[in-house]
Amino acid sequence: MRVLAAMSGGVDSAVAAARAVDAGHDVVGVHLALSRAEGGSGPARARGCCTVEDAHDARRAADVLGIPFYVWDLSEQFAEDVVADFVAAYAAGRTPNPCVRCNERIKFAALLDRALALGFDAVATGHWARLEHGPDGPRLRRAADAAKDQSYVLASVAPERLGHVVLPVGDTPDKALLREEAAARGLAVAAKPDSHDICFVPDGDTPGWLSRRLGDAAGPVVDTSGTVVGRHEGTHRFTVGQRRGLHLDRPAPDGRPRYVLSLEPVTRTVTVGSAEDLLVAALAGTEPVWHGAPPAVGSRVEVQVRAHARPVAVTVEHATPDAVALRPESPVPAVASGQLLAMYDDSDTVLGAARAA
């Protein structure tokens, strides 16, 4: 099988490419240049997974593996489909996950489409998740190492696309073992730290980065009674569930911490309240992607509302190609519009995903 290995410059993708070679595939490595410098015309030095150093690390890993290597510039499509989408979501008061959108539109869309057009059979990545290919199509499952699991950020990738994907590291029981393997293979990235930042925010200051694009628009911070308790410089500086950085003029009557409950960009209003006010007793999702038939009404599944959140049990009240409604067994805290709702069965298999309404 001809496999295009997406090599980010990190240890996960390097070992994924190595294992694809070991499996007897005809492997070619590719690094994606995604971010552009502000006001510049070439790939930027960004924090995360697409720096110039990352490209060099990926090339060195490909050299060790003895496979051809290329750098593909997808920065224009990344700017449109991921960065602009990120800015628009915050402007509308939603909370986007750029890694989810990047997987949907870049790695398993633009990259995969180009790979297939060039005659490759599949794309291999270093994502920590498992794919089981059967007669009914691919089934996406959590990684063997629960602490590294990335099935959440892959849950909205259409199953027909996952049929052309290879995830060689998902069965690894512990990240430490992967690093030991990388060192044994002579890969210089064996001890390279994991990336956690938003790759296109160079300094990690997301509120400041957004302000430079959206401009500051001051407005009131109100409590649940409508009383003004502070001022802010822009709703894009906040996310639902946020506690720090509110700079309120007066404490809560009971003295307890207050959290962001909702954002209204049109009126420029940020509403705050107690931890109890954050609890959500029902979940509604739009734009669902189902891995198989939608779950039956009344069935019990698990839902994960953030990349590192603990899954919670829910009952399916509605599930169609257009929408989903879920009833948690106990209220769920801090669910923001735009977040991905990833649904699993009791064996850690992804059933589908939708965006919180």
Description:
This protein is of the alpha/beta class and 357 residues long. It has eight helices and 19 strands. The protein has helices spanning 11-22, 52-65, 75-91, 98-117, 151-154, 159-162, 175-184, 206-214; strands at residues 2-6, 26-33, 69-73, 122-124, 129-134, 137-142, 165-166, 219-222, 228-232, 259-264, 269-273, 279-280, 283-290, 300-304, 312-319, 323-328, 332-333, 340-344, 350-356. The strands form five sheets. Strands 13-16-15-14-18-19 form a six-stranded antiparallel barrel. Mean pLDDT is 93; it is low at 37-48. It catalyses: S-sulfanyl-L-cysteinyl-[protein] + uridine(34) in tRNA + AH2 + ATP = 2-thiouridine(34) in tRNA + L-cysteinyl-[protein] + A + AMP + diphosphate + H(+). The active site is at 102 (nucleophile), 199 (cysteine persulfide intermediate).
Write a brief caption for the model:
By secondary structure, this protein is α/β, with parallel strands linked by helices. It has helices at residues 11-22, 52-65, 75-91, 98-117, 151-154, 159-162, 175-184, 206-214; strands spanning 2-6, 26-33, 69-73, 122-124, 129-134, 137-142, 165-166, 219-222, 228-232, 259-264, 269-273, 279-280, 283-290, 300-304, 312-319, 323-328, 332-333, 340-344, 350-356. Helix 1 (11-22) crosses helix 7.
